[in-house]
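As promised in the previous annual report, we have extended the structural survey to additional targets. Below is the entry for glutathione-specific gamma-glutamylcyclotransferase.
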Amino acid sequence: MDDFWVFGYGSLMWRPGFAHVETRKARLFGYRRALCVHSHVHRGTPDRPGLVLGLDRGGSCLGLAFLVPGELAGEVIAYLRERELVTNVYLERRLPVRLESGATVNALAYVVDRSHPQYAGRMEPSEAARRVSGAVGQSGRNEEYVINTVEHLRALGLRDHWLEAVAAGIAEPAKGL
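The corresponding structure token record, generated without further manual editing, is:
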């Protein structure tokens, strides 16, 4: 297999977990980063689900593209499938992304399956903040996940105003304590 690109929009950006030879900022058109997946394990429970990120239809998303050597294709794709397809809430796709250089490449990406029961849909930042607040799963507090994501995006020089509004909504109730 030839070298290929992987598009990261959430934790893959700062913790890819796979070998790659190049990293570039990239934009995926037609999808946006959103807290649109109910988390029943890592950031919530079935009784009190949290929210985690997915690529949902509409808009565009700034993220990172990773170039993977072709000889590692089997290993990297197996790793990504194990990581991203645990409950099959994501669909594996090859989508065009525009690198910061202006070049367009096809990248492996994981988009949310809107027909999956864990799909949470589109919501206002205040509603997302309400759902995130107080949810805890095996990987910790849902608030930490959102705030950590915003901090990592900022460190990479990326802004996500919707997600920043969610993080601000999480922080507001804490100020009143």
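The mean pLDDT is 94. Helices lie at 11-14, 73-84, 125-132, 142-155, 161-175. These points will be discussed at the next consortium meeting with the crystallography subgroup.
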